[in-house]
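User: I'll paste a sequence; please echo it back and then give the predicted structure.

Assistant: Echoing your sequence first, then the prediction.
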Amino acid sequence: MSEYQVYYVENCENPDISRKLLCFLFAYSDAFSLIYFRHNKYEKLSHNVTRIHKELAPYELDVCNVNEWPGMKTRNTNRHIYRMITYKIDSNAFTTLEEVGSFWNWDYPDYPMDISFYKNGRAWFYTSAHERDNGMFIKRGEQDSLITDMNSIGLKLTLKETANETQLFYNSYLENNVHISKGRREEMEKAKKIYFSNNGKIEELKKNGLYEEYLDYQVPVELEDEWNQQLQRQK
């Protein structure tokens, strides 16, 4: 199993440093993703987020609602909407991303959240803008050449920790063109059994003490409508 060293890229609040980093990531990556957050389906995206969504639309590879993305996992007990859109690397998309400036600007409500970059299906660079955090996974044995390249353009890195291959976020679409990974599918099947056994009634789940367990499986809001339709067809 491959081992990785995880580095923090310093000074991402600086637009000039962020632009250099963006150029570097575009050169070494084959895809990137953004999180489009809404508190509920009735909330409208800000004008700026809508503009970015429209400008990047030609480069979309995959769209899915998630509760986990590179560098972040949430139980989402408030049933917020985290829509992850994966995009291919394209020079025309660079212009849109460059305009955002600092990597820390990638945050709700002014911009989509937490830009991440992928190589061979793995997220090798992630950001968490509201926490002012990032992480770059570099395979052991490759760090010297990459860090030399980054230092040569004024980028500085600090070693955070070591990690193994299983700790890298896998984008299931990029990995094998499947929207839902095997593990995720198994989780949703467990949630589906709980939901169906209580006839789709949240009140019954709460009464039987199963609601928290149901939430543990991080079911997208949209699935409840789909499962309710299945229940109706079975009656």
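The longest strand covers residues 31-38. The first helix runs from residue 15 to 28.
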